[in-house]
Amino acid sequence: MTKDGNTTRVVNADNTPGTITIVQFNLASQLPIKLSGSHNFATWKAQFSMLMHGHDLYGHLDGSTPTPIPSTTFGTNTTPNPAYILWFRQDKLIQNALIASVDPTIASAVADANTSKQAWDSLHTAYANKSQTRIFSFRDQLGRITKFTTPITEYLQCIRSLSDELATADAPVTNSELIVKILSGLGPEFRVISASIRARDTIVTYEELYENMLDHELFLRHEEAKKTPGPITVAVATHNKSNNNTNNSQSWRQNARPNNASQYHPPNNNTTIVIRCQLCNKFGHVASVCRSKSHNHFEAKANYITGFNTTANPWIVASGTTHHITTEPHNLQPYHVTEDVSMSDGNKIPISHTGSR
């Protein structure tokens, strides 16, 4: 056996020459992740195992490459075993790589070992069991997570992150398990799309599901925006007798924000009427004479504003208001919330009764 740098020339059993190369490692580039505890043991282990498999040296870690006897004896002569010398040199380089790839607080567990396998087993004993506890924790979190009020992107990313952690810890979640988990954590607003995905003959991928969920959430937002109510407008009709010499003249005031900026001028007659039917929601008549009345048991309620004794033509106002105010609460229900209506002159009128059409 002769040595030439990191290459050792040997004579095989059939007297043919051969070479064995001692592998050295570029630790900075090949082992960038350092073991710092149970939280990253699975990732670190995957990194180191890949490097050993790449150089066909994993047998030093799992024991599949047996330790040769240190020396051979022929008669009374004892000579070092060349195979052991090669194995020993390579094993120490592997153990050195282990020390370099762990945190300084962990390095002593590797340095105290006699072989790289002992160091490997020591790290497993210290951190692999804790890693199992971490796997249980990940699976528990994955089983409990629900979308609730979080955005769909945040919900999906949280599930995917837990799935990736489990995969790194050698406990991967299959695609079908991942899809079922996502669908089971959705709220009732996703019931339709969830049912359609479950009814498919082929399982959807995570990427496809991600796009479908985003599109559906956008659709729900658009639908919700359509339901947003517009600003409340109020029509106020007041009937005041003037104290001047005019003949029982009436003055009307409207405090409203109509949909169309139309201006209405009451006619110059003695009396004016503002009436709105509670059945057809039109102005100019009351429910008792409405042609669209569907039954005879209807009792006029909130929107009815009392007319006054007159023979003049009615003043019909298409105000576009959504709420009306009346001074006759006998057809309304008591309102126990402390609220009021602001008038155009700055005064406020408390709300004592309410009613609906």
Report on this model:
- A 3-stranded antiparallel beta sheet has the order 1-2-3, with no helix packed on it.
- It is α+β, with helices and mostly antiparallel strands and 357 residues long.
- It has helices at residues 27-30, 41-54, 59-62, 82-100, 107-111, 116-144, 152-168, 175-184, 191-198, 206-226, and strands at 2-4, 7-11, 17-21, 71-74, 77-80, 234-236, 240-241, 250-251, 323-325, 333-334, 340-342, 348-350, 353-354.
- 18% of the residues are buried.
- It folds into 3 domains: 2-128, no CATH class; 145-226; 233-357, no CATH class.
- Helix 4 (82-100) packs parallel to helix 6 and helix 6 packs antiparallel against helix 7.
- The longest helix is centred in the middle third of the chain and has 29 residues, at 116-144.
- Helix content is 37%, strand content 11%.
List keywords for this structure.
357 residues; alpha+beta; 3 domains; 3-stranded antiparallel beta sheet; two-stranded antiparallel sheet; 10 helices; 37% helix
Oligomeric grouping of the chains: single chain
Shape: rod-shaped
* Number of E-type strands: 13
Instruction: Tell me the helix content.
Output: 25-40%
Distinct helical segment count = 10
Helix-strand sequence: EEEHHHEEHHHHHHHEEEEEEEE
Low-confidence stretches: 10-15, 237-267, 293-318
N- to C-terminal distance: 106 Å
Number of domains: 3
Whole-number radius of gyration? 43 Å
Strand content: 5-15%
Q: Biggest sheet, strands in spatial order?
A: 1-2-3
Structural class, please? alpha+beta
Specify the biggest β-sheet: 3 strands, antiparallel
Mean pLDDT: 76
